[in-house]
UniProtKB/TrEMBL annotation:
SMART domains: S_TKc. PANTHER family: NON-SPECIFIC SERINE_THREONINE PROTEIN KINASE, SERINE/THREONINE-PROTEIN KINASE UNC-51-RELATED. Its main location: membrane. Its EC number is 2.7.11.1. The lineage of its organism: Eukaryota, Fungi, Dikarya, Ascomycota, Pezizomycotina. The keyword Aminoacyl-tRNA synthetase does not apply. GO terms for biological process: autophagosome assembly; autophagy of mitochondrion; piecemeal microautophagy of the nucleus; regulation of autophagy; response to starvation; reticulophagy. This is non-specific serine/threonine protein kinase. One of its GO terms (cellular component) is autophagosome. Keywords: ATP-binding, Kinase, Nucleotide-binding, Serine/threonine-protein kinase, Transferase. It comes from Fonsecaea erecta. It is an enzyme of class 2 (transferase).
């Protein structure tokens, strides 16, 4: 006799469709009878119906990531000559802990609606959203109509996630018979390899649809939220940009910047640049850019582990990996134009070790097109602030020096009370005396400033460099100056370096705020020839051995 009250571990029901007699017959199967009960969460327009319970109490072979399997020889029996041993299943994603519906049939004779499995790329799984009140599941036969069910939730979305996590931990703590383990060929695709395959296989496409989890923060041009890719179950970071309406079919400045960011991210592939996973919503006012999710940015890491400010190994890794990222961009003719701690993401990789990645390419531009005021004032290179030279990848090198100065609290660069740009330059000069190995990065004249490739050659023997070694010249001679030099023509011999005046006045704090929030004007789009660094001589030697003493 079916129970009137469902088992307390039941999270949802498979309720047979009224026009599916074979699905109804499953309720009468002796192996299924213990898990048949009355679905009682029916709305006023629905009547209470009996269904098959889905929950961790159903399997006789409990596994932490498998809730229930349905098939010819499974937890819930679905008999039929064209039904697989396991035809479909309800599982938990190992990373995001979301409920996944899997088609496990040999001939892919399972369908779920609405939305369904993604077409293309051989996707046979989808995340189930507990906020969707009614999923329709069809299985078996050429028309996929032999068994038809309606998936009905008996708990709210929050309760479902909490209940499943608790039950999964209980099951994981049990001692399991190794014979119950799923074979390798039956297991879900490994997450890291899945991401790598998707990123480098255009046929698979990119992330197209997501389910929102919650806020992460705000970027330079939009909100960043934590999401789940509905087709893989993996966490992603989704940057949401609200675009203004088009005027006379012309793209807004914000849309041009956004398309620029997507163009950069989709054309780069480097371990120290955040992975781009796709975009969606271009036909709406809210465009989503999907990237791989990281634990946080450099500011978050410093708040969490302030001891990193003096950790020699971590600082050297940060310096090295950001030089690699900047050299990669420079070799391809790109300038990031907004290098700062908030745009450097981290991922733990072992004990007290991290992988650093550059993110937020909202201001990035081709080297030959870049000419607008951009970036955050504290990290802005002198040639950008004073418009004395063409913008080049060396402005990113300057910004990286300031980042390291802020992280190590050198030269008081971390002080929040810096009121004007002359104070910033004075702090940079002081920081350079504390980090003499980084002086080539802090030259105020970009013609005398080292490139990322030159720093990689000098201090890391070119490890991780994208620019061909023969194209890397010597670091320019700064005239044996002990610190950063001033732009030529601005300093007389024996005089103290001074900041070139900007229209006869100093930049006050309000000016820095104005510059920080200014929207850069965008130039015309076009294919620009790749601009490479040409050698002015033989490559420099390795310089000092690896180690933190470079910073001292």
């Amino acid at each position: 006799m079916p129970r009137q009250t469902p088992h307390p571990q039941t999270i949802c029901f498979l309720v047979p469709d009224q026009k599916s007699p074979r699905a109804k017959a499953m309720l009468l199967h002796p192996d299924n009878e213990p898990f048949v009960s009355l679905y009682q969460n029916a709305t006023a327009t629905e009547r209470a119906e009996y269904g098959l319970e889905i929950g961790y109490h159903v399997p006789t072979r409990p596994r932490p990531l498998v809730i229930v399997e349905v098939g010819k020889n499974a937890d819930l029996v679905m008999p039929g000559s064209n039904i697989s041993q396991v035809h479909f299943s309800f599982e938990i994603h190992a990373e995001s802990r979301q409920i996944m519906f899997w088609d496990r049939s040999r001939l892919h004779t399972t369908k779920i609606e609405p939305d369904g499995f993604r077409v293309g790329g051989n996707f046979r799984q989808v995340v189930l959203d507990a906020k969707t009140p009614d999923y329709k599941i069809s299985a078996g036969g050429e028309k996929l109509d032999q068994f038809v069910f309606h998936l009905k939730w008996c708990k709210g979305a929050t309760d479902v996630v909490q209940e499943l996590e608790k039950e999964s931990q209980i099951v994981a703590a049990r001692v399991h018979n190794p014979r119950w383990a799923r074979t390798i060929e039956d297991g879900p695709t490994d997450l890291p390899s899945w991401y790598n395959t998707r990123l480098h296989t255009p046929a698979l496409g990119a992330v197209q649809r997501t389910m929102d989890i919650g806020p992460l923060g705000r970027g330079s041009y939009g909100e960043v939220r934590k999401s789940v890719d509905l087709d893989s179950g993996c966490f992603v970071a989704t940057k949401i940009i609200h675009l203004p309406p088009k005027v006379d079919f012309a793209m807004s400045n914000e849309e041009v910047l956004l398309r620029r960011e997507v163009k950069v991210l989709s054309s780069v592939s480097h371990k120290n640049i955040v992975e781009y996973l796709g975009s969606s919503g271009w036909d709406t006012s809210d465009v989503n850019i999907h990237m791989s999710l990281k634990p946080g940015n450099l500011c978050d890491l410093l708040r969490k582990s302030p001891g990193i400010r003096s950790n020699k190994d971590v600082l050297t890794r940060l310096w090295h990996e950001m030089l690699e990222a900047l050299d990669y961009l420079a070799y391809r003719g790109w300038i990031h134009r907004d290098v700062k701690p908030e745009n450097i993401l981290y991922t733990p990789s072992g004990d007290n070790n991290y992988l650093f990645q550059l993110a937020d390419f909202g201001l990035a531009n081709r080297q030959l097109l870049a000419h607008t005021l951009c970036g955050s004032p504290l990290y802005m290179a002198p040639e950008v602030m004073h418009n004395t030279h063409k913008q080049s990848p060396k402005m990113d090198v300057w910004a990286l020096f300031v980042v390291i100065g802020v992280v190590t609290q050198a030269g008081n660069l971390h002080h929040p009370g810096l009121a004007n740009y002359e104070d910033v330059l004075e702090c940079v000069r002081a920081a350079a005396t504390q980090h003499p190995a980084l002086i080539p990065m802090a030259q105020e004249d970009p013609n005398l400033r080292a490139s990322a490739a030159q720093m990689l050659v000098k201090y890391f023997d070119g490890e991780g460099m994208s620019t061909p070694r023969h194209q890397v010249g010597l670091i320019p001679d700064s005239g044996s100056a002990p610190g950063p030099t001033q732009t030529p023509g601005r300093r007389e011999s024996g005089q103290k370096s001074q900041v070139p005046p900007l229209k006869g006045r100093r930049l006050a704090a309000r000016d820095l705020r104005r510059i920080n929030h200014a929207s850069p004007k965008v130039g015309a789009n076009g294919n620009i020839p790749r601009r490479r660094l040409h050698a002015n001589g033989i490559a420099e030697g390795r310089g000092e051995p690896l180690g933190f003493r470079r910073f001292t």
